[in-house]
Amino acid sequence: xxxxxxxxxxxxxxxxxxxxxxxxxxxxxxxxxxxxxxxxxxxxxxxxxxxxxxxxxxxxxxxxxxxxxxxxxxxxxxxxxxxxxxxxxxxxxxxxxxxxxxxxxxxxxxxxxxxxxxxxxxxxxxxxxxxxxxxxxxxxxxxxxxxxxxxxxxxxxxxxxxxxxxxxxxxxxxxxxxxxxxxxxxxxxxxxxxxxxxxxxxxxxxxxxxxxxxxxxxxxxxxxxxxxxxxxxxxxxxxxxxxxxxxxxxxxxxxxxxxxxxxxxxxxxxxxxxxxxxxxxxxxxxxxxxxxxxxxxxxxxxxxxxxxxxxxxxxxxxxxxxxxxxxxxxxxxxxxxxxxxxxxxxxxxxxxxxxxxxxxxxxxxxxxxxxxxxxxxxxxxxxxxxxxxxxxxxxxxxxxxxxxxxxxxxxxxxxxxxxxxxxxxxxxxxxxxxxx
Length: 436
Known about the structure:
This protein is of the alpha/beta class. It has helices at residues 3-38, 46-56, 143-146, 156-163, 179-188, 205-209, 237-243, 252-291, 308-323, 331-338, 361-377, 405-409; strands at residues 62-64, 67-69, 74-77, 81-84, 95-99, 103-108, 135-140, 167-171, 197-203, 219-223, 226-230, 295-301, 327-330, 387-391, 397-402, 414-417, 419-422, 433-435. Helix 9 links the parallel strand 12 and strand 13 (327-330). Helix 4 (156-163) packs across helix 11.
């Protein structure tokens, strides 16, 4: 080969490499300034961003080595992750004045009201089920099961408890968490209470949440088609805070490229990975509940404004449950069938730009009644009247109007109130008017 041609060839390679290096250095400068201006750490994906933000967070309650508190409403379990803190209550923020001829106080139990066992219940439960024939129902889910945006006594578990005679309903919900937390909480905590019925309320987005920030969740592994709850990278947030160090050297340019790629692909990937985990989890739950004669029900919940991906995954979840012969509730289909009877009112709270509007009090009640109907169909409880539901003020009353015209004529309208009157003379509560 001609010597001059080789020199020219080498010169072009050097120029190309120089251009690449200069572009990289320019990109580094630009993106370092960009993230400095935004005031955010650079990250390749949401998980890395979560770790860095948690390390840099300035809103911890306490960061002393002997007193580390993240948020006042969270407790930590070394295997499950974040859980509702026992005896935490946000009720004080919702204290109203009550007109009963004279002024009294009423306390509204909020969605973040936890009993001493870390359950989202007002009442307490014994590990050993009472020997009085009552049905013990355990619900697992996210904020939809907690009843976010509404009072605790209007959430799905509370209304279900009102609809099913001689029952107690334990609410093992965990705000913002996914199917991994539901599963781990059932295996580690829920089974200890020996429930007769186990209900998993699974929002489609809960599949993706299993791959969110690892700090807050269990570490599930799949081995030979079985789920193993493995040790977590950091058993506590305190352990994370005092031991995690962000990378000392990292490329802002390359990490930004990875961030853009993950922003466009991670949601779908996590949804599909979550569907695979859901499939294994369903098999596992089916085997565990069958071994102890527990009735298993899985409810699939759609957000009010689902994406095309979420609609596709929802349909696949329903198909999967059919194939595995699991008792399930198709909430989207059920709500659609109930729309006309409720004059097309929304069963969700829809706030501006809020993709995850939660169930309204009426939505909670309609959903709870479907679970009751499934229990009737399975022969777990006697058949009882169905109701139309009405709620005019979120923190006042939920009205249960019998579907039966005969019962309506007899005036057998029931009522659930969101609050407890502080003090005596509560028998007049049906005439209470609330004002703030």
